[in-house]
């Protein structure tokens, strides 16, 4: 295997950190790049791009939401002689009604996907749905640890995907043949409502954790009362809208296609996280 490193952007994030760990477990040289990690990389500072790309053979690209920086980055990657790019994208981007999108995230993702497809490099696109880790590391985590998750999610369901499975698909695409030109839509094995997800976590953690469904108006009012600007509170409610409307409840076959196995269930994720102390109050 070539000793040229694989560049991982967003190397401290949910998927990027796991990609780094899994690559290193395989003995693959990795350049872990982020604003505050081992190798400085900042999407907002194109002066950091060349050093990140120099001598790399392939890259996992985790883009900055709502920006159109992937296209110029890919152009630099071509100039540096990269062979392969795996792009982190998202499910639902082909549906213009997936969610309210005042920040232009969907259009930016579509432009990023087009950029890698047009690059002439070997490319693979990962389109994960809602991360299971949103309950342990993301924006639901503090509420779960506090014992009560209050969201305008209604009884909508999502087929939550474990970030370990996302990383495994990315690592396969970076290190194996047969993934070029593939778009992998990634989900868990079945959909759960927020109530079911929280009940699963509660059982795994061995303590009571509740899900309290709110209306959008109640949710926004609570966040404003806690000191959040109204626009930010409404933006958070928009993020949850696809959960409420069940836009992510469908099950995708990307993990099976890429890895030849079933994705990890939400219950398996919950048990592993609880065993590691992930929901200690």
TrEMBL record:
Name of the protein in its database record: NAD(P)H-binding protein
Record-linked InterPro entries: Ergot_Alk_Oxidoreductase, NAD(P)-bd_dom, NAD(P)-bd_dom_sf
SUPFAM superfamilies in alphabetical order: NAD(P)-binding Rossmann-fold domains (SSF51735)
Gene3D superfamilies per the UniProt record, alphabetical: NAD(P)-binding Rossmann-like Domain, UDP-galactose 4-epimerase, domain 1
Instruction: Report the residue ranges that make up the NAD(P)-binding domain in this protein.
Output: 10-176
Task: State the species of origin.
Answer: Saccharopolyspora hirsuta
Q: Name one Pfam family in it.
A: NAD_binding_10
């Amino acid at each position: 295997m070539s000793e040229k490193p694989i560049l991982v952007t967003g190397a401290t994030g949910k998927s990027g950190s796991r990609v780094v760990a899994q690559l290193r477990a395989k003995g693959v040289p990795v350049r872990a790049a982020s604003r505050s990690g081992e190798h400085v990389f900042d999407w907002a500072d194109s002066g950091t791009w060349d050093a990140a790309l120099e001598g790399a053979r392939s890259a996992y690209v985790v883009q900055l939401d709502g920006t159109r920086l992937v296209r110029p980055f890919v152009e630099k990657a071509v100039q540096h002689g990269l062979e392969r790019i795996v792009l982190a994208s998202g499910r639902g981007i082909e549906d213009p009604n997936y969610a309210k999108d005042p920040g232009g995230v969907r259009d930016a993702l579509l432009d990023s996907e087009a950029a890698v497809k047009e690059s002439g490099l070997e490319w693979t696109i990962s389109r994960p749905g809602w991360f299971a880790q949103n309950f342990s590391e993301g924006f639901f985590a503090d509420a779960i640890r506090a014992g009560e998750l209050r969201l305008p999610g209604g009884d909508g369901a999502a087929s939550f995907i474990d970030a370990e499975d996302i990383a495994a698909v990315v690592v396969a695409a970076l290190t194996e043949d047969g993934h070029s030109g593939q778009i992998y839509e990634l989900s868990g094995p079945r959909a759960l409502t927020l109530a079911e997800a929280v009940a699963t976590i509660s059982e795994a953690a061995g303590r009571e954790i509740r899900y309290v469904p709110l209306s959008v108006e109640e949710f926004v009012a609570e966040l404003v009362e806690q000191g959040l600007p109204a626009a930010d509170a409404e933006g958070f409610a928009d993020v949850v809208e696809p959960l409420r409307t069940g836009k992510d409840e469908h099950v995708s076959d990307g993990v099976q296609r890429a890895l030849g196995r079933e994705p990890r269930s939400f219950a398996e994720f919950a048990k592993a996280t609880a065993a590691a102390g992930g929901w200690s109050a």
